[in-house]
Write a structure and sequence with these properties.
With 921 residues, the chain is of the alpha/beta class. Helix 4 (136-161) links the parallel strand 5 (118-121) and strand 6. The radius of gyration is 27 Å and the shape is globular. This is Aconitate hydratase.
Length: 921
């Protein structure tokens, strides 16, 4: 431990313990910085080495110009890395493969080891196969182990083979809730040094930790691997948006309503690549759980983080969740000594400012396919009637009570553009033409009903966003209690599920006596994991699925999650809505979106019609039960042996040794191909000639579109591969669960059932035109890519705005690279996916302002040449490159934003860069 050039090393006395700290006030200008930049400044002070981090970097951050555009690169070294199993399995595969690559190049394989704590929570693998019964949880967990035994054995091997790597076994909780309830330190104490807890994760919702003052965000798996191996994260000093909160939430509104309002505001404002920081008197009115909910949905805003400073509420939460008094004292003393304690009377300097009076928040939903598309609950019925016209081939039937309904006026018919690139089409802005297609259904138990457009096929209390929040969870349970007492239950066509973020939730449900009411209306415990929010909804009942698909019904899902992208929730569901847990239950009782849920009866009870207002719990009752039902001992008991697991986990047979013994027959875990043929020195960067377009895509193409995590459809290349390797259809599992097998994932790239490749007319799914064949016939994207590879033809992808939004999914970039895509040309990118593309050696290019594929007349049938890329060989980064597409020529912006990213690209990817550095040392 040594002082840096600022002489900032000092002592902090807390009780009878003394800690070394790097004082921020040693840097001129630090006092005026926002909380988030103070944390970054401490990081630089502590890691200054004269090379990666210099005194110039530190001064640049201290003298931060709030109004300037980001231009100064710094190197951020997170204190730890957190993973979930879908993204974490490929990380461990890559680390195991890197060990072999180091050995093959003459290095020491044991050097491939996490240098900072790396923790994984297995939460993405449980699927809702069973629901609505007391044994649903046990049966789902048993099925989970049957499906994922190979993966779990591999992860248990990793836990023994790598230092500083720990695994939280299945059935414990969702990664982000486990993180804030147990794993997050807030202030680290390591080797006698105290410093802010910072954490990057392989899931975009890592930002939930921002709610307790921990700076961190989601990164791609490959970037996380580099961070584990001691590689700092290269970033530009960001702009920071100050979001002032005033007032208090009105009765009847929830944290979900608040976060959907904030999402809408920040998406409209534009915060991609920026930090968002909350301040003001209204922060004090927000329970920690609400802050965590807001931080969680930072990816939906597009911001890098959405952080709250440390205050008394933070300490109360740490105490509630069982942190030691010594740790809590350290957090308080450190935050106050370093100016990291929230003072509502002080307004830090920000780049941009927004303000929200919490009293103006109203009950809301978001949908039918983007989190930022907030809908006031009062307008939900009319909005659904308008939007459903985009999902139904022909409007059947006339309006129900059309003359009595209204919608915000418009002077002309609205133009609706599907976010995945459909051509605009006119729809009825008043939502008055309500389509009907009533289909009779008989279930195997004899239950009969009619299924129609808008019927709620899935109602799921799911996801880290809301199940971590006791106020909305108790609210949901009380609503269930009130509904049961009035004789209500779910409609028979609704698949209901309850998947809490941690075991503490079911503990306080049991203590409060509310669990039986949830069970009675079908919201039985199905698992502790992400479930429906990541597409692990499981199948609908066969009779319902058949009716939906045979009759092209636009049925809906209502979930308490953070993502509602097309094709994500269920292959049978076209329209997905985000809502608070109480509203999820209300819509399960109503059974349809075609209802004015504030004014129409939800259902007929034992004593007549029941309205939402009749069963909605009073906020005072919710608060009282939260106060009386949740205690510190619950958290202490749940996390006492959090890494140990149950008998299933402990009983797994695992291989031993520093190098993994790959099974050539495995369809889950295979040695990664990224280092095949890698040389000790990188080859020079080359221009791109004779490239063909693999896919031409529209706006808001998400990583779900590029690399789906849901079911594997029979007849697709991925399904054919599995069947060729002896896997029965019932054992396909999901794309997410097979991320340790690149053969499956390559075949699943661009395979989302809702993807619309504009090279084809009106076709959905993973298809393209194959220009290697006469007539350029329709082909699976994977098959076409293999044909192009056989001819040595490089590939490009053309896209619109917000390309790669959504999950941090590194396979969206890995699959793109392994298909042979050399460059992507888009109108704009989401932060993580752009970074991931560079990390895999794919060149992200951006159309100039005002340019697009349409304005330039690009059809996707052209042959592309991209020149000027070779300027990277000279050590710098060119601002632009020249693109020629047959007779068309234009310049595109090179979106390699930092010198560090340029190093990664020159090496063919971030892992190759790290590997060569390790061998060089």
């Amino acid at each position: 431990m040594s002082a840096n050039s600022f002489g900032s090393l000092d002592k902090l006395q807390v009780g009878d313990r003394s800690y070394d700290i790097y004082r921020l006030d040693a840097v001129e200008g630090s006092a005026r910085l926002p909380y988030s930049l103070k944390v970054l400044l401490e990081n630089l002070l502590r890691t200054e080495d004269g090379a990666n981090v210099t005194a110039e970097h530190i001064r640049a951050l201290g003298q931060w110009d709030a109004k300037a555009q980001p231009s100064k690169e710094i190197q951020f070294t997170p204190a730890r890395v957190i993973m979930q199993d879908f993204t974490g399995v490929p990380c461990v595969v890559d680390l195991a493969t890197m060990r072999e690559a180091v050995r093959d190049l003459g290095g020491d394989a044991s050097k491939i080891n996490p240098l900072a704590p790396a923790e994984m929570v297995i939460d993405h693998s449980v699927i809702v196969d069973y629901f609505g019964s007391p044994d649903a949880f046990e049966r789902n967990v048993q099925r989970e182990y049957e499906r994922n035994r190979e993966r779990y054995q591999f992860l248990r091997w990793g836990q023994t083979a790598f230092d500083e790597f720990k695994v939280v076994p299945p059935g414990t909780g969702i990664v982000h809730q486990v993180n804030i309830e147990h794993l997050a330190r807030v202030v680290f104490d390591r080797n006698g040094v105290a410093y802010p807890d910072t954490c990057v994760g392989t899931d975009s919702h890592t930002t939930m930790e921002n709610g307790i003052g921990v700076l961190g965000w989601g990164v791609g798996g490959i970037e996380a691997e580099a961070a584990m191996l001691g590689q700092p994260i290269s970033m530009l000093i960001p702009r920071v948006v100050g979001f002032k909160l005033t007032g208090e939430l009105p009765a009847g509104t929830t944290a979900t309503d608040l976060v959907l309002t904030i999402t809408e505001m920040l998406r409209e404002h534009g915060v991609v690549g920026k930090f968002v920081e909350f301040y003001g008197e209204g922060v004090h009115a927000l329970p920690l759980a609400n802050r965590a909910t807001i931080g969680n949905m930072s990816p939906e805003f597009g911001s890098t983080c959405a952080i709250f400073p440390i205050d008394d509420e933070t300490l109360s939460y740490l105490r509630l969740t069982g942190r030691s008094e010594e740790q809590i004292a350290l957090v308080e003393a450190y935050a106050k000594a370093q100016g990291l304690w929230l003072d509502p009377s002080v307004e830090p300097e920000f780049s941009e400012y927004l303000e929200l009076d919490l009293a103006t928040v109203v009950p809301s939903l978001a949908g039918p396919k983007r989190p930022q598309d907030r809908i006031s609950l009062a307008d939900a019925k009319q909005t659904w009637r308008r939007d459903v016209q985009n999902y139904v081939a022909s409007v059947q039937g006339a309006a129900d009570e059309a003359s009595n309904e209204s919608f915000p006026a418009s002077d002309s018919p609205a133009i609706s553009r599907d976010t995945n690139g459909d051509k605009p089409r006119h729809v009825d802005p008043n939502g008055s033409s309500r389509p009907h297609n009533r289909v009779p259904v008989t279930l195997d138990d004899g239950t009969t009903f009619e299924l129609d457009h808008g019927h709620v096929a899935v109602a799921a209390i799911t996801s880290c966003t809301n199940t971590s929040n006791p106020y909305v969870m108790i609210g949901a349970a009380l609503l269930a209690k009130n509904a049961v007492e009035k004789g209500l239950t779910r409609k028979p066509w609704v698949k209901t599920s309850l998947a809490p973020g941690s075991q503490v939730v079911t503990d306080y449900y049991e203590r409060s006596g509310l669990a039986p009411y949830l069970d009675k209306i079908g919201f039985n415990l199905v698992g502790y994991g992400c479930t429906t929010c990541i597409g692990n909804t499981g199948p609908l009942q066969p009779e319902i699925s058949k009716a939906v698909n045979d009759n092209d019904l636009a049925v809906t899902a209502v979930l308490s999650g953070n993502r509602n992208f097309e094709g994500r929730i269920s292959p049978d569901v076209k329209m997905n809505y985000l809502a608070s847990p109480p509203l999820v239950i209300a819509y399960a009782l109503a059974g349809t979106m075609d209802i004015d849920i504030l004014n129409d009866p939800i259902a007929e009870g034992t004593d007549g019609p029941v309205y939402l207002r009749d069963i909605w719990p009073a906020p005072e009752e919710v608060a009282s039960i939260v106060e009386s039902s949740i205690g510190q001992e619950m958290f202490a008991q749940s996390y006492a042996d959090v890494f140990k697991g149950d008998q299933r986990w402990a009983g797994l047979d695992i291989p031993s040794g520093d190098l993994f013994e790959w099974d050539a027959a495995s369809t889950y875990v295979r040695k990664a191909p990224y280092f095949d043929g890698m040389t000790a020195e990188p080859e020079p960067v080359t221009d791109i000639h004779g490239a063909r377009v693999l896919a031409k895509l529209g706006d808001s193409v998400t990583t779900d579109h590029i690399s789906p995590a849901g079911s594997i459809k029979v007849g697709t290349p991925a399904a054919q591969y599995l069947q060729d390797n002896g896997v029965a259809v019932k054992d396909f599992n999901s794309y997410g669960s097979r991320r340790g097998n690149h053969e499956v994932m390559i075949r699943g790239t661009f395979a989302n059932i809702r993807l619309r490749n504009q090279l084809l007319d009106g076709v959905e799914g993973g298809y393209t035109r194959d220009f290697t064949q006469d007539g350029a016939p329709q082909s699976f994207i994977y098959d076409a890519a293999q044909n192009y590879a056989a001819q040595g033809t490089p590939l490009v992808v053309i896209a619109g705005k917000e390309y790669g939004s959504g999950s941090s999914r590194d396979w969206a970039a890995k699959g793109t690279a392994l298909l042979g895509v050399r460059a992507v040309i888009a109108q704009s990118y989401e932060r993580i996916h752009r970074s991931n593309l560079i990390g895999l050696g794919v060149l992200p290019l951006q159309f100039k302002d005002g340019d697009s594929a349409e304005s330039l007349g690009l059809t996707g049938t052209e042959t592309f040449d991209i020149t000027g890329v070779t300027a990277l060989n000279e050590g710098g980064v060119p601002d632009e490159v020249t693109v020629k597409a047959d007779g068309k020529e234009f310049t595109a912006i090179v979106r390699i934003d930092t010198p560090g990213e340029a190093d990664y690209y020159r090496n063919g990817g971030i892992l190759q860069y790290v590997l060569r550095n390790l061998i060089g040392k």
